[in-house]
Amino acid sequence: MMRKSFKYSVITSFLLMQSGFTASANTQIDELAAALDKVKISGYLNLTAGTAKKENAFFRAYDTKINATSETWGGVQIDFKASEKLDFTLLTKFFAESRPYDDSFGVDLAYLSYKLSDQTKLRGGILRVPLYKDSDYKDTGFAHLWLRTPELIYANNKVQRHTGIEILHDIYLGDGTVQVQAFYGQNEDPRAKAAANNNKTYTIDDIMGVHATYSIDEHLFKLGATTRTEPGDLSDFTYTDSQGNERLEEEGYYAGDRQTFYSLGYGFDDGLWKVDAEAIFEITTGGRQDNGKYYASVGYRFGDITPYVMYQYRETLDDSERGLNVDTYVADDEKNTVTRFNLQKSFQQSILSIGSRYDISSNLAFKAQVDSYEHTSTGVNGNTRDIDNLLYSVSLQAVF
Q: Does the entry feature the keyword Transferase, yes or no (predicted)?
């Protein structure tokens, strides 16, 4: 009887131990699941191939041969929710082919986000400049209807991102929401470093601006202003030519100039029709040309297939300010003077794009697009120059 009692006691103790072990394991699993739930890993991939009708006519990455690397890139994003109020975001980016002034792999975004209230958020770190309507996701490709973003409008690498702070505040207005976004920061300028004759790091100072986005039903409206200063000064870009004369690199003519970007944007998406339009005006104090840049696109969804058309246009706005004077730089022991006038008095550029998007699945899309490019420039002597080209592209774009 004693033996049976002992046996039952041992069995009971073992079962209790197993129950305790199972409960402990379940607790650890729950804790691990809760920790993993705070981390979200996502990413995107663009595989693009294209060929141009002519060589070296705007589409510089393409010639008459098929190129499958110039617009192939991807990235991985990690989001960590540290608490109910604090988040961290890291977005990496890699290029299949190294680009000028870009590493083949690097950090695209990295910032902390702190929720001050239900309507106000503060961010700090490496951030996107909210100049464009779709700045928050413009590099993912898949998020856009088109194969590539409108180049004549979005192609200003000096105001794509900054290291600094920004504040976002939501204002509820009727059935819609207005989000006000103000920011301040700086960004290195590798183009200035490449032009200068030293190893200094050149910084685009005081990049700052205020933008407001109003969303209501299927509509989105955005307006704002961004401003920044060209880096360096005259002495950073001077050099001595073979005849012993002191000269100035082209970047030196713009050193210290202030550039302001005024932007307007509109978007509409009701599930069938998708309409996008933007206008950006670049106004500069100094010799750089003032530009007006515009685009509009329309697409209509036939199930998983969405054909679209987009038209872009860019023009100079201050043609009357450019005369016969060309680059003038006078070096003096006490004072340097510089005047910048372009031989080109005015130019107009346009791109007409026709394409189609096929959504293979919820996270994979195939796109085909044809771009027709035209460029007309007029010199200060009245001579005109016309350039045109065609680009044929296909792309497989995915998010995960």
A: no
**Using CA atoms, how far apart are residues 156 and 147, in angstroms rounded to an integer?**
19
3-class state of residue 264 by DSSP: strand
Q: What is the pLDDT of residue 51?
A: 94
Residue partners of 286: CB distance under 8 A and separation at least 6: 230, 253, 254, 256, 257, 258, 340
Q: How many CA atoms lie within 13 A of 325 on its CB side?
A: 11
Closest CA to 367 of 284, 310, 329: 310
108 or 29: whose pLDDT is higher? 108
What's residue 388's pLDDT? 92
Global pTM value: 0.84
- Tokens 């190893």 locate to 199
CA angle 336, 337, 343 (to 5 degrees): 135
Please count the other Cβ atoms lying within 10 Å of the Cβ belonging to residue 381: 8
- Number of C-alpha atoms within 13 angstroms, CB side, residue 227? 11
Picking from 157, 164, 158, the residue whose alpha carbon sits closest to that of residue 184 is 164
Q: Identify which of 48, 251, 15, 24 has the alpha carbon closest to the alpha carbon of residue 149.
A: 48
Give the DSSP H/E element, type plus range, for residue 22. Answer: helix 2-37
Domain boundaries 147-399, corresponding CATH code = 2.40.160
Comparing 17 with 83, which gets the higher pLDDT?
83
Q: Which DSSP category does 119 fall into?
A: S
Between CA 160 and CA 190 the distance in angstroms is 13
Residues 149, 135: contact at Cβ < 8 Å?
no
Domain residue ranges in the chain: 147-399
Q: What pLDDT is stored for residue 2 in this prediction?
A: 44
The percent helix, strand, coil of the chain (3-state, each to 5) is 15, 55, 30
What is the arithmetic mean of pLDDT over 298-309?
98
Closest CA to 379 of 342, 349, 348, 350: 342
How confident is the model at residue 221, as a pLDDT?
97
